[in-house]
Specification:
Layout: H1 23-43, H2 49-54, H3 56-70, H4 86-105, H5 109-131, H6 138-161, H7 169-191, H8 200-210, H9 215-218, H10 221-245, H11 247-275
Helix pairs in contact: 1-4, 3-4, 3-5, 3-11, 4-5, 6-7, 6-11, 7-10, 7-11, 8-10, 10-11
Length: 276
């Protein structure tokens, strides 16, 4: 993820801005997580490919929520729930509660997750755009769409080179695409918009790329894109056997892989749109 201004990344393990919320919020969040997790485990619910895809809007919700936090558009009483890493917990708790409620009521879990998540995501993204003083969407949107396309091509190449990964299906493709989005939007932010990377490990990759002879012509972000796609492909290849053996656990792992790519990628695109 990026800061609002070009910056030098500090020598630390965690991203700049990473901080736990005040103790009452931490306790409340932990209780909420425990409650939702207990409810879901008691009902022994299925988790498959369609659930991973239905979770995509909730990844967008988390990304948009954090952008609202960064631009100080979240009410003070709720703001601690939208920082890093609290926003991921908040989105997961709300999404999990919707999942649990749908199962209790007896309606389609997948459809409910997708519909409620999509409506919430549209509202969250709309709030980001409405509260912005300026909106410049061309480069961020181009980066997002290019990341989707490049990730899809990488996923197809992975399926051709490692046919055993095809068992992961659309969830595996989503995982690779998600990291393509993160990689390309990062490259856009660094090379075209002058943003500073907040995550130390990502910054090291960018710094290594800047030292290469290709920096003058290709910029510094291309190496980060390549690394992201390779890491995602390796992750899918490692998780694929789990999907084949115990699909619930395998798809849950793929959902996590997708979330840690798509969340930051969408966050990048939205932040660049309103803060470039």
């Amino acid at each position: 993820m990026f800061g609002l201004r070009p910056s030098v990344v500090p020598a630390q393990l965690l991203p700049e801005g990473f901080a736990l919320p005040p103790t009452p919020y931490v306790v409340g969040s932990l209780l909420a997580v425990a409650g939702v997790a207990w409810g879901l485990s008691r009902r022994d619910l299925a988790f498959g490919e369609e659930h991973v895809l239905a979770a995509v809007p909730w990844m967008v919700v988390g990304a948009a929520g954090h952008v609202l936090f960064v631009v100080e558009a979240v009410p003070a009483v709720a703001a601690p729930l939208f920082g890093t890493p609290a926003v991921y917990v908040t989105a997961a708790v709300v999404g999990g509660a919707v999942w649990l409620a749908a199962d209790v009521v007896g309606v389609s879990v997948v459809r409910t997750l997708a519909v409620v998540g999509s409506v919430t995501a549209v509202a969250a993204v709309g709030a980001v755009l409405v509260t912005a003083e300026t909106v410049a969407a061309t480069l961020p949107a181009g980066g997002l769409l290019s990341g989707v396309g490049l990730g899809w091509l990488a996923a197809r190449l992975l399926a051709r080179l490692r046919p055993e990964t095809r068992v992961a299906g659309a969830a595996g493709t989503l995982a690779v695409v998600a990291h393509g989005v993160d990689g390309v939007t990062t490259a856009v932010g660094v090379d075209l918009l002058g943003f500073g990377e907040r995550t130390p490990l990502s910054a090291l990759i960018l710094e290594a790329s800047a030292a290469l002879p290709t920096a003058a012509t290709l910029g510094t972000g291309w190496l980060f894109v390549l690394v992201k796609l390779l890491v995602a492909a390796v992750a899918v290849a490692l998780v694929a056997p789990t999907v084949a053996e115990t699909d619930r656990e395998g798809y849950a792992l793929l959902a996590v892989v997708a979330a840690v790519g798509l969340g930051p990628g969408v966050h990048n695109a939205l932040l660049f749109t309103v803060a470039a």
